[in-house]
Amino acid sequence: MIEIRNVSKHFDRIEAVKEITANMEEGTVFGLVGTNGAGKSTLLRMISGVIKPDSGEILIDGENVYENEAVKRNIFYISDEQHFFPSATPEQMRRFYAGIYEGFDNDRFYELMSKFNLSTTRRIMTFSKGMKKQLSVILGVCAGTKYLLCDETFDGLDPVVRQAVKRLFAADMADRNMTPVIASHNLRELEDICDHVGLLHAGGILFSKDMDDMKLNIHKIQCVFRDDAQREQFTEGLQVLTTEQRGSLYTFTVRGSLEELSGKVEDMDMIFSEILPLSLEEIFISETEVVGYDIKNIME
Amino acid sequence: MTSKTSWNNFFKNEIRSRIWMYIGWAMALIFSMPVILLMTIDTFRLNYYYDPGALTADVAMFLGSGYGFYGFVAIGLGILTAFFCFSFVYMKSAVDLYHSLPVRRGKLFAIRYLSGALPTVVLQLLAAILSFAVLAIRGCVAVITVKALLFATLQSIMTFFMAYNIAIIAIMLTGTLIVGVLGTGTLLCFTFFVTLLLQSYRSSCFQTYYFGSAESESIWHMLLNPLAIVFINSENDRLALRLVLIALELVLFFVLGMFLYRKRPSESVGKSLCHGISKHIIRIPLVILAALAGGLFVSFILTSLPTAWYWTAFVISGLLAHVVLELIFEQEFAGILRHPVQLMICLLIAGFVSVSFQYDLFGYDRYLPNREQVASVSIRLGSVENEVPHFETGEDGELQYGDYDEILKEDLFTDPGTVLNLAKAGIADLNPERSAIKRRQSQMYGSPDYDAKEKMNYVIRYRLKSGREVYRTYNAEADSVLSDAAAVYESEPYKNFIYQAGKLSADGRIDAIEARNWEDSLAFDGTMINVNDLIAAYEKDLAARKLSDLAAYPILRLSSTDFEDYMDVMSGYYIYESDENTVRYLKSVGIDVQTFSKRLTPEEIRQIKVYDYARSSEEVMESKVAATFSYDDGCAATYTKEENAAEIERLCAIMVPSNLSYNNSVLHPTVTHVDLEVAYTDGNGNERIAYFLLPYGETY
């Protein structure tokens, strides 16, 4: 498990990460979302032991990660701008990583390179941005580490490859309980892969929640009431997060299970009613508004 | 995977990734050592085909003092290797990769350090082996050449490591490539610059500063600067100590480099400096030094300007250095005058340093140790027997001109009493003007005092009981120091050092000898005397000579040619009337010295031309001696036998031959700005010209 306890990091006068506390459970996919400059990369770099927190601590399986060889053998960090040696080929990079990570799966590397249609002997400098990202992921997955830290890894991948990578992650999670931590500014990318999401903003963490909890316990209800009294009766006892009115159509974002809310809707004799699932983005909008942030100013 | 395995894999990968760098290094090293050595030997062979010994000696010298080019190659390789191996710290993506790997930073540093250094050292050794092969092929293998080659290789390796370590330290302190390059340059040149500045201030501000002390004073500079290692030769003092210190220093630098790397935050990429504190550590000394250097530079090139210009340049230089450094540190024009208080403090410190030099606030010129502090003293009387040459024997047994100042390294006297008296006299005779700038201006632009009597110059070296060596040079009125100078000159250790005639004769260095008088007439040569007998008698006279004997003019000038070494080893030795043993020996072989002491008579003189270089240009123009500026412009008077018999008679009585006057000019002072060109008819009826001087106090 990755435990982040009250971690802060300053860059000169800029507070990049501000007292973040979060846990990343094994065998789950943790998504770190937030705008550019929210502190996602800084947090990932601290988790991977690249930079040292100014205060607080990051424990991986109970041990501090910074300058800890034993702990870092369980981590592979894919930077947002992965470095390859000048004029190196994928084969040379494989040789390098295989010399560092004892669990590096060479056979799988060749297999995945072939599946992703990447040459092992072509110079990486001639690869496209997406091809480099694919190579990084393949190297990361083949390193066989328990934790795979990905910084904007899906950025630049086409939808087909993105799905292939997601399947790759799912397979490794199933086979060897790999724990990917994925940072991205794109909520839609994470929606169908993350088990747990943490939203960062301005260096702080707004919340960190389980995806299922969020999705199952928050819904959007669109309805047209017969009169105001019925509307008041409907909202009474509900945990309404947001309300929007367009003409006679009301849209409520409400906390509660589908069963609970369906019962309530069916009990009312409204002109029109419909319960809709929320996208991850809509959930964030609602949740962040609750904690006092105007999401339109936060998210792109 | 064990730690050792990951180390090996990592190391191999590092070597593999830089294979082209090593190929380039191999080419540079092979060209700069064996190829250039081969070309040099072949050039030498054209000149020394008849003398293999001379060829070997020159090849050894090339490998020693001529090693400079190879040394500079080693410096270049050291810097480039450091940047090839460690410039990854300037790339965020590379830092992310390396620092996320399960390798501790200390180990990562060591792997990259060794992957840069070891192959380069192996290539340097390979170049040395090839150089040895070149020596063997060209028949130059000898103890001196092999020794020189080994020393050059050792020097080259040390130079490489010094440059490599310094560049690594600069890289570890900086966050961008360009600042890293600037930092490397600063670290490489810093000690050299400080030493140069310190020496410039001392020499320009202190009246008793002795240039020869520079080497001993700059030992720390020699240790910290790879350029200095290049110029250490195998004959340097304390060579073993220096090499050991440099080796220790290299270990220290390695540890420092590793420490800085471990402390270097990964997020430093893109910043000018990794640690905020280093900005102050760098800025404060550089601003102080820049202010001092700027002021001195302007006062050197524009000596005629008032002192205020020194301070203007001083402030502008300090300000400029501050602004440039702020610009480099902050990478923006806004706020280049940040830290104004720090700037003011730096300028105040620099101002105090400058004033302390210019007005000698700490009494450098008035330094006089207590007798109890002094372990030994040495002295060189610069104005006594200053034409007597000093020789040393090289490693190859060849005679070579030595350094007069070598006497200062001898422990001549353990009782410093006499030397301290001389120092006191020198201090009493210092220029009373306290401002160094005004003194310099007066020397450069004031009217020279042509009538001033030449002063006695001497250099003193104190070796204190603390181990410290202190050098001072003085110029004092001869009359005030004669008795103490005599005590020094007449002492056995002093004479043994300056007079090497007996030793040279014993070593068989004097094959032929001859003596000529003031008009260059031959008094005797090797066919008329027995060289060994003459030297034996002369050696006794040298040992017995008093300083007062040198006040008289010598009669004969000796010369000798050692045909093996092509040197006149007796040049500068004279025979005086007081040299009783020599005079007696010469008389015993039928040579009467007195015959050659005969001076000109007024009757023999046809004309005397008087050249006076102290005359102003107006006087020269008025004299209308020549229409255009020429040597004759200095001709102040022409006396002919027909028209100026009285003047010729007077001058003839007092004038002294110039070629016998320079050896001890302080003891028989002359008017330095007047030359007499005397045309005369010699005893054989030949018309000749000789040059004479006027004794001090006389006029024409």
Key features?
heterodimer, A: 300 residues, alpha/beta, Rossmann fold, Alpha-Beta Plaits, elongated, B: 700 residues, alpha+beta, 4 domains, five-stranded antiparallel beta sheet, four-stranded antiparallel beta sheet, 14 strands
Shape of chain A: elongated
Q: What's the total number of strands of chain B?
A: 14
Number of helices of chain B: 25
List the domain count of chain B as a whole number. 4
Report how far apart the termini of chain B are.
99 Å
Give the oligomer, counting copies of the same chain as homo and different chains as hetero.
heterodimer
Strand tally of chain A is: 14
Cα separation of the termini of chain A = 31 Å
Order of helices and strands of chain A: EEEHEEHEHHHEHEHEEHEHEEHEHH
Shape descriptor of chain B reads globular
- Whole-number mean pLDDT of chain A: 86
Question: Whole-number radius of gyration of chain B?
Answer: 32 Å
- In the CATH hierarchy, the third-tier topology of the largest domain in chain A is known as Rossmann fold
Q: Which ranges of chain B are low-confidence, i.e. pLDDT below 50, for 5 or more consecutive residues?
A: 625-629
Structural class of chain B: alpha+beta
What level of helicity do the residues of chain B show? 40-55%
Chains forming the largest contact: A-B, 32 and 27 residues
**Main β-sheet of chain B, in a few words?**
5 strands, antiparallel
Low-confidence stretches of chain A: none
